[in-house]
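Quick one, probably user error.
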């Protein structure tokens, strides 16, 4: 019952499975103990009847009092155990789950994050885990405990009198059949509710992220209108899902309760024909009040289980995505980056086709080509932010897919277009480059990256907080901080997206001189946009539609008058002379 399939279905860890088993066991014990309570009541009634009929005082009343006391004590103990097993243990499980998810997300290849956006992932870590938490704590133990104890009690009832037992229990399978029959409908409405709730989360996030643009362009009304529509859709979908679940759950509960009526009818006719005595019917009627209770609970719970399946599936999807793993040690010989027949697709569309080139240590290799030709993709693959789908990339003779991404990235500095800055001081933002660097080291790197001049103007110098994602800094300043980080790290490989187009001339020169310090002696792979950088590169790789179409030193390529690079060079040189 609690095998691997069960574990997957409810997205449980090993520890969670153990907790569920315990919870189930204690639920069975509690349910059976409640039946014992009914037994005590039954015998008490028998004794009282005897007193009424024969006029004797209840002969063994001491036993009843004793039994009742024992029953109460036991029921307190077992209820406590059940409570602890279902709730206490589950909260441990939720902690494990959240930490596990975070750890897992850290190791997932970036490609995964392209498929699931931020709002979606947040919803999984918070929402889906919450939903599962409720299922683990309030549902599984009760549900499966209910199944097992009812099966035991049903066997006992059948042994006592099969006719009454059938009259009392026929509704149970019918009720469950009805619920399972409605399963697909429930799952579909739950999925729809989920999709609409994601749309609302997305809409909110989008609105918050773009609040400035929305204000600036007077789009509040349109945006709020759209958000309103999404919230309305969510409301409708939620009500629909609840309605479907409620309809079937209550329907099933009513059907099950028809068992009381049939038991009375069958019992009455059996008594009339003299085949059973009244006390047996009385006992069945007592049991009935108890036997439906766990089932009633189960019926409501089953609906929740159906709804939770969507959440469990989304959680398992994260666990099922293969993590980017590899050896913890990265010991390359030298740092040449070698692309061998690399093919890659983000989704179905092939972005790189058979790309081969070498970026040598101590040289600057420039990737050039029209926008969308795959330059950034090559740089990302070189750092194993994604894994190649064909061919291989080696660094110093080591295939990078065999190295743990964290170990690998220790040898890389990346200065990309989108510099991520944290809401902390300038000092701490640069220190990110090298864990445990001293203030002096940070200052030296910052000075080399030409940060001094703008940092000195900040109110508290290097100790000035820079606002969320560096809101207080200009593009050029942000980039210099990121170069300072890279200088501090002093990694042997530098990947650089030279998007300096947005900088003014003064800034650009400063960034350039900072860069030349960073790049000396490294393996440099640069996504080049400007001809000046390209001319100074040691090697140029021209990409077009994901293929290498030309490759060589700038002078070699320029020597070919019909070459693509020669044409690009001519075009850019011409545009450089334009002015407005
Ligand atoms: P370049 O840097 O030369 O402009 P890219 O490597 O960024 O080119 O992009 C190459 C192709 O891959 C483009 O068609 C682009 O739309 C696509 N692409 C880039 N990044 C992604 C991504 N994260 N998911 C899906 N497609 C992408």
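Nope, works fine. Designed sequence:
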């Amino acid at each position: 019952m609690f095998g691997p399939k069960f574990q997957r279905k409810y997205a449980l860890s090993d520890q969670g499975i153990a907790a569920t088993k315990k919870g189930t066991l204690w639920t069975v014990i509690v349910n059976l103990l409640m039946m014992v309570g009914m037994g005590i009541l039954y015998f008490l009634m028998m004794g009282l009847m005897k007193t009424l009929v024969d006029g004797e005082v209840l002969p063994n009343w001491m036993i009843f009092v004793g039994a009742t006391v024992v029953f109460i004590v036991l029921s307190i103990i077992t209820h406590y155990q059940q409570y602890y097993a279902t709730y206490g243990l589950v909260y441990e499980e939720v902690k494990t789950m959240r930490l596990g998810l975070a750890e897992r997300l850290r190791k997932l290849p970036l490609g995964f994050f392209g498929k699931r956006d931020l709002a979606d992932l947040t919803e999984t870590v918070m929402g889906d885990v919450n939903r599962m938490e409720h299922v683990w704590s309030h549902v599984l133990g009760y549900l499966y405990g209910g199944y097992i104890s009812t099966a035991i009690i049903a066997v006992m009832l059948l042994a006592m009198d099969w006719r009454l037992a059938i009259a009392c229990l026929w509704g149970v399978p019918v009720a469950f059949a009805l619920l399972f029959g409605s399963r697909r409908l429930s799952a579909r409405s739950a999925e729809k509710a989920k999709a609409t709730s994601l749309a609302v989360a997305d809409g909110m996030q989008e609105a918050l992220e773009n609040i400035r643009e929305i204000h600036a362009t007077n789009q509040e009304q349109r945006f709020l209108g759209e958000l309103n529509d999404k919230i309305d859709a969510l409301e409708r979908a939620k009500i629909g899902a609840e309605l479907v679940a409620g309809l079937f759950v209550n329907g099933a509960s009513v059907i099950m309760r028809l068992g009381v009526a049939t038991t009375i009818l069958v019992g009455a006719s059996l008594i009339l024909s003299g085949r059973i005595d009244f006390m047996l019917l009385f006992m069945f009627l007592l049991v009935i009040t108890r036997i439906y209770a766990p089932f009633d609970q189960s019926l409501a719970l089953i609906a929740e289980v159906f709804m939770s399946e969507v959440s469990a599936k989304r959680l398992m999807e994260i666990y099922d995505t293969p993590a980017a793993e590899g050896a913890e040690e990265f010991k390359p010989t030298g740092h040449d980056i070698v692309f061998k027949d690399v093919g890659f697709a983000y989704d179905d569309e092939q972005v790189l086709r058979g790309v081969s080139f070498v970026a040598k240590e101590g040289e600057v290799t420039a990737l050039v080509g029209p926008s969308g030709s795959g330059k950034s993709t090559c740089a990302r693959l070189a750092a194993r932010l994604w894994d190649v789908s064909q061919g291989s990339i080696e660094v110093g003779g080591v295939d990078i897919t065999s190295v743990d991404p964290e170990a690998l990235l220790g040898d890389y500095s990346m200065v990309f277009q989108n510099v991520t800055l944290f809401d902390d001081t300038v000092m701490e933002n640069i220190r990110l480059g090298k864990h445990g660097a001293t203030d002096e080291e940070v200052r030296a790197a910052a000075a080399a990256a030409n940060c001094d001049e703008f940092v000195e103007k900040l109110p508290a110098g290097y100790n000035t907080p820079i606002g969320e994602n560096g809101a207080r800094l200009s593009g050029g300043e942000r980039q210099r901080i990121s170069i300072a980080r890279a200088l501090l790290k002093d990694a042997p490989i530098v990947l650089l997206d030279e998007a300096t187009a947005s900088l003014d001339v003064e800034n650009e020169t400063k960034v350039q001189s900072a860069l030349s310090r960073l790049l000396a002696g490294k393996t440099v792979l640069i996504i080049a946009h400007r001809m000046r950088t390209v001319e100074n590169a040691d090697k140029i790789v021209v990409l077009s539609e994901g293929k290498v179409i030309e490759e060589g030193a700038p002078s070699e390529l320029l020597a070919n008058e019909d070459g693509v690079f020669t044409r690009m060079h001519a075009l850019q040189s011409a545009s450089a002379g334009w002015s407005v």
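The radius of gyration is 36 Å.
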